[in-house]
UniProtKB/TrEMBL annotation:
NCBIfam families: pyrF_sub2 (TIGR02127). It comes from Actinomycetospora corticicola. The lineage of its organism: Bacteria, Bacillati, Actinomycetota, Actinomycetes, Pseudonocardiales. Residues 31-293 form the Orotidine 5'-phosphate decarboxylase domain. It catalyses: orotidine 5'-phosphate + H(+) = UMP + CO2. InterPro entries: Aldolase_TIM, OMPdecase_AS, OMPdecase_type-2, OMPdeCOase_dom, RibuloseP-bd_barrel. The gene is pyrF. The active site is at residue 110. Belongs to the OMP decarboxylase family. Type 2 subfamily. This is Orotidine 5'-phosphate decarboxylase. The keyword Lyase applies. SMART domains: OMPdecase (SM00934).
Amino acid sequence: MTAGASAATGRNAARAAFTDRLTAAVGAHGPLCVGIDPHPGLLARWGHEDDAAGVERFGRDAVAALAGHVAVVKPQVALFEVHGSGGVRALERVLADARDAGLLTIADAKRGDIGSTMTAYARAWLADTSPLAADAVTLSPYLGVGSLTPALDLAAETGRGVFVLARTSNAEAAAVQSAQSWTALSDPSSPGMREVAQGVVDACAAANAARVRAGGSGPAGVVVGATGGTTGRAHGLDLTRLHGPVLVPGLGAQGATPDDLARTFADGTGPVVPSSSREILSAGPDPEALRDACLALNGALRALALPAGPIGA
Ligand SMILES: O=c1ccn([C@@H]2O[C@H](COP(=O)(O)O)[C@@H](O)[C@H]2O)c(=O)[nH]1
């Protein structure tokens, strides 16, 4: 390990906070996050086999086409893991290419476990020394938001971020995420009945609060799906105290449109980062066609004037 690096993370160079880096990248390129989801049908369309070599070529070609044209990419970890150790190695290479090309990365891994195991997940996705390190990782809060503390702490230490699932884009989620809960998942300093999803947001806000009070940015963002039609501002969630980014999957293949986002996220501040995977990737494999599709979607998203700085700032 390099002299001066932290024993846990190997960190030896200052990196600006993830929210600040995301805000700058969105300002430069637009808010679109391109999901790198190498589904079998897309692999075939791009001329690749459904194997480890295929997902590696797919991911690296996508990164090469998108570098300098979008702010952030989001590899779907499951679609690499399905190919075993070769698929994980492929993901490492895709992440390395993205890093070298200056693209921000969100590993969509949806990890969550008891604290001691969470420490290992945190090191896998957020430590400088890990070959799988991304700029941010998605986390599941259903073992309790508090169990995610090792990831929040390491993200803050290494200038990385986490996106905690609050209101996901799938219809089945409502039974859990819209249930009323007595602070079980939320900020103990602010007790009361609220939706589970709001409790997740409030706990993330609490995790960011101390750093925000000190003039910095916290590591915690949330996932709020783009689907759900016109259920009002952020689908009923109050994000005003979050002081963090919002990842918004569901554009395109799941049916959400930029107009839906305009109705749900157009007030307040951001950054709000809508993400599309299957639909935008189907514009490939021609790099120019893929870039044109991103440019058009980013143009439509920019026109919505979505929040661009930390929500709650
Ligand atoms: O609430 C959520 C959280 C994550 N996802 C992930 O995003 C992409 C969506 O892919 P599309 O092809 O654009 O539908 C996928 O990797 C999901 O696992 C989500 O959809 N919803």
